[in-house]
UniProtKB/TrEMBL annotation, chain A:
Pfam families: nos_propeller (PF18764)
GO terms under cellular component: cell envelope
Record keyword Oxidoreductase present: yes
SUPFAM superfamilies reported for this sequence: Cupredoxins (SSF49503), Nitrous oxide reductase, N-terminal domain (SSF50974)
Name assigned to this protein: Sec-dependent nitrous-oxide reductase
Name of the top EC class for this enzyme: oxidoreductase
Record's subcellular location: Cell envelope
The protein's Enzyme Commission number: 1.7.2.4
GO molecular function: copper ion binding; nitrous-oxide reductase activity
Source species: Fodinibius halophilus
Keywords: Copper, Metal-binding, Oxidoreductase
Keyword Phosphoprotein among record annotations: no
Length: 658, 151
């Protein structure tokens, strides 16, 4: 009894203190909870569907989480940059290559910003892109089968944070270095130099990835930049289409204790890149082909569904010191984080983490200042525009630590304030705060479906909070991040729902469900299965030995494997199970696992073929079975492999039902 | 209750079945057409004619990929043996069973019986109506040629 009391006591005390402080900060006590009719607004009846898909980055889990909105229900997780034992992604022979890089196989990634493809400035439901921050990469996920279809590495980069933001017709997606690294002017290679030679040797790059009609990505060009930290980005739209904007901090070019040393300047910069001009330069063959080894991995279910990797050795680099009109710096207070372009394309909003105002730059004024050469300096060939010449206005009293802004398409902007833990709604034209709401606690990004496009669906807003603390039942020191759904359909924002999210969703994107539903694949057609090791009937099932490799061509259907009795495997063999799921119906995957395998399971979708590598270490008989409950006789879906000693004369034999 | 269900089912068989159907509905709520020919997209009697060997061959290929993992001709396997199916069932019933298995095992008394016997519900292999028709032809051929295992 005593112990229980003690435990409750230690938990309860800090909770009371926390809520007390927060209550004091609220306008009224009710905001701690949600509004009265909230339950009906987020209730999606059994069998009904959500109105929006929400795509939430998994942060340090490296994956992409899919949530329904407004219910906040977790619908699915798409494995992207991390191996996923849940279905064998990154473990199966078919998908391993998706995680290849110029550093070899990298089993984990840090996924930050999902970004939906767009057509005419509107989300179109074809693909979603997402960046990997640690080993710079960008992935493309097909929204027809919710699978990662392509991953491209970004060369000459580190900390791929300002990524991947699309242009209005998905012509390009951008990617920039958060961490500058030493780069030789001659060959761009990372150098073995003293770290305190930062100012002399370190550089950044802004990369533009071209996306083909079918989605194929290739790095069209990189722009060499001063050694700042490039943080976030958004493309222009409407009148500003053809430009992209990148925030930077650490214009001090510090290489140690950045929290102090990179916070000294009153203003850092937004880099405004004229990507249409850059694309013209590229067409004219300008710039220099530089070493830039990077790996591109892709998988196509119409071509057998086996991931392939290719290494690309070079990349075209544009140098603003040599090519005019490519990049301009917009001075922006103070260590800006997010940069967001409103739906009209007229305004560029920066979230200066340490700033007391939200600066709003005018694109028209920026163009004029460029024409009139209203420059206040130059850094590494990049003209710095005069702050007063480009500023449209400053939003006063925007909360402490403004980070990110999205838009409702009705003339309002919504900005997260991390330190004061609130979302501030402000009128774009008037640059005036009109409403504010507390969040629990400390929002990073926020998301309105279509909220960074030209056509936002201004009904809901999701705050992606960085701190969870007491919002849910405690789960020890580590807990899921907290997202909060806020109704923005009226004049006042209303808190509707808390829901936990997996990993650390940095950013999210949302899209009306009907744009995605119509293209859904429900199974892969067997007749289109182009996998070289696929078999499309039990007649073709067989076991073949090739030296010490044993290939088992197997089928799975409710509720048996063929063959399910296999003999003649020996210790020291490399055994490959090539399993085709013969089902042709929605939601009938079969799983596969075998005792003691140093591998994850396979989860094989209907009509798909996947391969499992097993190196038996011991003699004996090893059971395998279906891991995904598939029918009333699922428990019977099992088989045996007999493993004999190395050098024994047990012949290959196999069968089912004999 | 039964008559309400009957109206809702909308089984619109015509030809030789039409008079049967309008005069009868049974306790399952199925029309007599459905009772004989199953529930699904095939709602009219088919005119089969002579066995079309080319079509039967197509059906054989389809059968091998989509069906043979569970059905054999002459032995009970995961599902029933099929050598004499076309004698026991109408072609329309066979097609509806292929095309609409989930509803069949829920509502049709014969299909329900089979499910109780075999326990594994027949999966929907998403065949087109033409593909299901070719399998009927294959089964007719196999029924007529009792000794052969393939065409």
């Amino acid at each position: 009894m005593n112990t229980i009391h003690k435990i409750i006591g230690t938990w309860a005390l800090p909770l009371l203190v926390v809520s007390g402080v927060l209550l004091a900060g609220c306008q009224n006590g009710q905001q701690i909870g949600s509004s009265d009719d909230a339950a009906s607004k987020v209730y999606v009846a059994p069998g009904e569907h959500d109105e929006f898909y929400g795509f939430f980055s998994g942060g340090y889990n490296g994956q992409l989480g899919i949530y329904g909105l407004p219910s906040g229900r977790h619908l699915f997780t798409v494995p992207v940059f991390s191996q996923a034992p849940v279905n064998g992604y990154g473990y199966s022979e078919e998908t391993k290559a998706m995680l290849n890089t110029s550093h070899g196989f990298v089993p984990w990634g840090d996924a930050h910003h999902p970004e939906l493809s767009q057509t005419n400035g509107e989300t179109d439901g074809r693909w979603i892109f997402i960046n990997e921050n640690n080993t710079p990469r960008v992935a493309r996920i097909g929204l027809d089968d919710f699978k990662t279809q392509e991953i491209i590495e970004i060369p000459n980069s580190a900390g791929n944070h300002a990524s991947p933001f699309v242009t209005p017709n998905t012509e390009y997606i951008s990617a920039a270095t958060r961490f500058s690294i030493p780069m030789d002017d001659k060959d761009m290679q990372n150098m073995d130099v003293p770290i305190d030679s930062y100012k002399e040797n370190f550089r950044g790059t802004l990369s533009f990835i071209k996306v083909s009609d079918k989605g194929k990505m290739n790095i069209d060009f990189q722009i060499l930049m001063p050694g700042f930290d490039y943080d976030l980005s958004h493309a222009g739209k409407g009148p500003s289409d053809g430009w992209s904007f990148f925030t930077s901090y650490n214009s001090e070019e510090a290489n140690t204790l950045l929290e102090i040393n990179a916070s000294k300047n009153d203003k850092d910069f937004i880099a405004a890149v004229n990507w249409k001009k850059a694309a013209e330069y590229v067409k004219q063959g300008k710039g220099t082909m530089m070493p830039g080894e990077h790996v591109r991995n892709y998988i196509d279910h119409e071509e057998g569904g086996i991931a392939k990797s290719e290494t690309i050795e070079e990349v075209r680099v544009l140098d603003p010191r040599k090519l005019d009109g490519l990049v301009y710096f917009l001075p922006t207070p103070k260590s800006p984080h997010g940069v967001d372009v409103d739906p009209s394309g007229k305004y560029i909003v920066a979230g200066g983490k340490l700033s007391t105002v939200i600066p709003v730059h005018s694109f028209a004024k920026m163009k004029k200042a460029i024409e009139n050469e209203e420059f206040e300096g130059e850094v590494m060939g990049v003209p710095v525009l005069n702050y007063d010449s480009i500023l449209y206005g400053e939003v006063e009293n925007p909360g402490l630590g403004p980070l990110h802004t999205e838009f409702d398409g009705k003339g309002n902007a919504y900005t997260t304030a991390f330190i004061s833990s609130e979302i501030v709604k402000w009128d774009i034209e008037k640059t005036e705060v009109v409403d504010r709401i507390n969040t629990y606690y400390s929002p990073g990004h926020l998301m309105i479906p279509g909220g960074d496009s030209q056509k936002p669906d201004g009904k809901y807003l999701v705050a992606l909070n960085k701190i969870t603390k007491d919002r849910y039942l405690p789960t020890g020191p580590e807990m899921f991040h907290s997202a909060q759904l806020i109704d923005i359909s009226g004049e006042k924002m209303k808190l509707l729902l808390d829901f936990p999210t997996e990993g650390e969703p940095h950013y999210a994107q949302g899209i009306a469900a009907e744009k995605v539903i119509e293209n859904q694949k429900r199974f892969y057609k067997l007749e289109d299965n182009g996998h070289p090791d696929a078999i499309t009937s039990e007649k073709q099932a067989r076991v073949e030995r090739d030296g010490n490799e044993v290939h088992i061509y197997m089928t799975a259907i409710r509720s048996h494997f063929t063959p399910d009795n296999i003999e003649g495997v020996k210790v020291g063999d490399e055994v490959y199970f090539h399993i085709t799921n013969l089902e042709q119906d929605w939601d009938v995957p079969h799983g596969f696992a075998i005792k003691g395998a140093n591998n994850a399971e396979l989860l094989i979708m209907p009509g798909e073929t996947l391969s499992f590598k097993w190196e038996p270490q011991k003699e004996g008989v090893f059971p395998f079975y279906c891991t995904d409950f598939c029918s009333a006789l699922h428990q019977e879906m099992q088989g045996y492999v007999r493993v004999s000693p190395k050098g024994s004369d047990v012949e290959i034999a196999y069968g089912t039902g004999q | 209750m039964a008559s309400v269900l009957f109206v809702g089912c909308g089984g619109s068989g015509n030809g030789d079945q039409a008079s049967d159907q309008s005069s009868q509905e049974n306790e399952n709520g199925l029309s007599s057409f459905e009772q004989k020919n199953g529930i699904g997209p095939v709602t009219e009697k088919l005119d089969l004619g002579e066995i079309d060997k080319e079509l039967a061959k197509k059906g054989q290929n389809m059968f091998e990929t989509k069906c043979s993992a569970c059905h054999k001709m002459d032995e009970r396997y995961v599902g029933p043996q099929l050598r004499n199916t076309t004698e026991e069932r109408t072609p329309e019933y066979v097609m509806n069973m292929i095309l609409n298995p989930a509803e069949m095992v829920k509502k049709h008394p014969e299909a329900k019986k089979k499910l109780a016997e075999f326990m594994t519900p027949m999966p929907n292999q998403n065949l087109s109506q033409e593909e299901a028709r070719s399998i009927v032809e294959f089964l007719r051929y196999m029924n007529k040629n009792q000794d052969v295992d393939e065409i």
